[in-house]
Each structure stands twice: as structure tokens, then as C-alpha cells.
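Figure S4 source data
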Amino acid sequence: MPPSDKVHIAPIEDADLPGTFKMMSLSFGSDAPFINAYFLAHDTPAGQAQGAERLLAWKQSSPDSQFLKAVSTRGGEEIVIGIGIWTYMVEQPPQTLEDAEGEEDVRKYWPREEEREWMKALWREYVKPRTRAVVGSKGKGVCVLELLAVHPEYRRLGAGAALVNAGLSAADDKGVGAVIESTDAGRQLYEKCGLKCEIEKMNFDVGEGFSGKKTPKLCFMVKGASGAS
């Protein structure tokens, strides 16, 4: 039975996270360098269990992060078909992976040195544009879409747009802008939701030691505060 065309947005429950992480892994596949580095082996049972554990820890420790799910129905049962995580940032984001995750967890989640150093290098570059956005807000902060994924089998039902617009509405309520690090696949959706590309290709200066690695191809997109000129 096909899913209902109706999609609604609700807060994610802790019990949703294992299945939601698996859905996220399917959504990104293997061609997402940042996700692949941040959630190692996310397409394996062990990687998915660890990923769900990390999302749960994030959800429970970050009151400024809003974990949202897009829900449809099939056969009379609700199914989660999308996830969106928005964070309201007034302070600058952690500038190093150790600051973001903690020394102990960095070694736990990236036990191999090469993978650990690669993720550290990516993180340093990844947070630079959003840091400038937070600083540029002059204390007001910005809303950051940290993660968006829709199940591949349930696209074109409006789940992605609903998850994006929920965060943009929250930003409008706060009177602040919003930022997104967008893949090529997501850019058209974000543009339809009113965001504009500020940095066409984010720079990842990871150093000569990683010259053979595939870096993320991301566009930094922004939406000004509601009513801003």
C-alpha cells in the first residue's frame, strides 16, 4: 500500500532514533564524504547502532537543538520518512572535533588515527562559514540546519520542504536568520524554501596529507532574518 500524501512534522522521540538513523543512512548512501567521515560505517549494523547512540546523546544534551521527524501513514500505521535537526546557535560552534565531541569520544568513535585525523581536518573547515554567520549576527544567533534526510522511497511527498520550513518558521519567530551547508542534491529544495547560496563551493583546506581524499562538495546557503533588509 502506498504512503499517504499527507505529511506532518513532530518532535522525534528517543525510541525513533534507531530506525531514523537507518533511514538517514539510506538517504545519504555512500557518496556523502562528510557523513561518511562523521558516522563511520553508517551502512552497517554496528555503525547504525553507534550512530543512533550518538544522536540520542546529542538530543539529550543539546536543549537548543530541535529534532524533528516527518511522518506519513501506510496501511493505517505511522511511518517516519524524514529527519531534520535544527540548532539555534548564539555562541560560536565548537572549532575542533575534540571540543564538539570530547577527547574520549573522539577516540571511541574514530579509533583509527587516519580516520580520526581526517575527521578533525574536515571539522575545522566545515564550521568556518557557520562561525562567521554566528559572529555576524551580533549576538542574535542563527538557526542552523545540521542534518536533513528523507527516505529514498518516500521523496516528493513534501517531507523535506516541511522539515526545512519548520526550522525557518522557528527562526522567524526568533527574528534571526538561518544557514545550511547544502549538497548539490538539496540545493534546489533549499532555494524553493527561500535560501540563497552565499558560498558556491565551501573550502576544505585539509592539508597535503589528505590530498587524495574526496572532500565534501557543499554550498553555504543563508536566509536573512525576517524583516531584515
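Figure S5 source data
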Amino acid sequence: MTDHIHVKISGAVAFVTLNRPELHNALDEQMVGNLAQTFQKLSVAEAVRLVVIEGRGPSFCAGGDIGWTRAMLDQDAEEVSRSAMQMAVMLDAIDRCAKPVIAKVQGAALGMGAGIVAVADMVVAADDASFSLPEVRAGFSPTLIMPHLAAAIGTRAMRRYVLSGERFDAREALRLGLVHAVVAADKLDAARDLMVDSCLKGAPKAQAAAKDMLRVMDDSPAGPDLMRYTVAQFVEARAGAECREGVTALTEKRKPSWS
């Protein structure tokens, strides 16, 4: 889309690359807006089954651009609110993408970079990756990121890192549930490809429905209303063409049409 956000479609997979390596892929206002638009478009792109987000160079994403952050000091409340909404919309666009989103993380994933990791569906990290929510050390709270981080690792674990701003490594991120796999740096691309291949075996509409269900579960307490909703979704899925094809393929011992 732009020099700093590069999109490549390879077969059914869209690769979205943060392309500002000289600044460790720090996000400026234009990048944030373009990322949101990119994921909104990919979410409805019929030819795309899956999205991979990664960063070029030594780091995944060092968070917000310091120049942009500094400029906000001289902005009025309305301007700051507009910038904050852009960042919130970007995270929401990634989170709500109807396609599975895989993040490939190397080096630093700080601040908003860690937020992007938190909204990805699957994350593979190099063993040299590090994570931090350093905002409190700069005098403000990572409020835009916190709901997504809480969904990823829980509020108890989140307390330590949003209050201290300390860095933690890939193994700790794995223990917390922020990432799903940690591999040697030279095995990162292969591990990403393995995740991609695994995801492509799933039925597209079923995956989108599963993502919708996850959001409903986050927003709804267990009880009769949620139970009725799950039953309705189950019935709808069983009546669909994907289910018929998947079950038929299973009984015929062949791959389904989407695999």
C-alpha cells in the first residue's frame, strides 16, 4: 500500500510487512491508518484465506514513532483524540479480521508493537524476541493496548508489565500465552510456514464463524442466552455447504476442497 506498509499476495496468503527497518518499524500516523485500511480490505477479500503480519529488519515493531508521540504534546484534546482513535481502530481491524492472522515476531515488539501481537490469532516468535509495555516510563498509560493484552494474557499477568514497563523475553511471552511458539531465529520462517499450512487446512467460513464466536464469548457471560446462541450457530454451520463438503471428504478419506 505504501513504502512503509508492504502487502504481497502469494496464493491465498496475504503478507503484510511493516517496512521501516531503519526505525525498527516504529509506527507513525500514516502507517497506523494504512494498516487499519489494509486489514479492513483483506478481511473481505475473497481470494485471501489468511494474513501474515511481520516486520522487516531486526525488529518486529518498536511501537509508536517518537516524533509522532512528541508532536501530540502540542496538540489539543480533539487532535489527540483523533490520533488515539486511529490507533484503536487499527488494533480493532486486525482483531476483527475475518481471516486468521499470524504474527511473525523477531527482535523488539514494544508498546503498540506488543498490541499488534496481542490481537493476532497466532504468534510465532524467535528466541531473541523481547516484549514490553514501556508507556508508564514515558509518563502515560498504555490504555489502547490493555483490553487486547488482557484478552491475551489475563489481567493478573498484565498488571506487572503495564505497571513496571519492564521487558520480558520470548519464553516468558510463551508462558503467559502472548505467543504460541518460540523457535530459533533461523527457523522462524519455517515455523511461520508451518502455521500457515496448518491454518489453510481449515474451512474459511468455519474459521470466520469461530472468530465471531470468540468475540461473543468475550462479551457474554455464560448462561442461557449464550447457550441458545451457540446452538443456533451450530445448526447454521451444520446446514452449510462447507460442513457437507468437510464431512463428505472425511468419510471418503480425501482432502476437502479448500485444503
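The mean pLDDT is 91. The radius of gyration is 19 Å.
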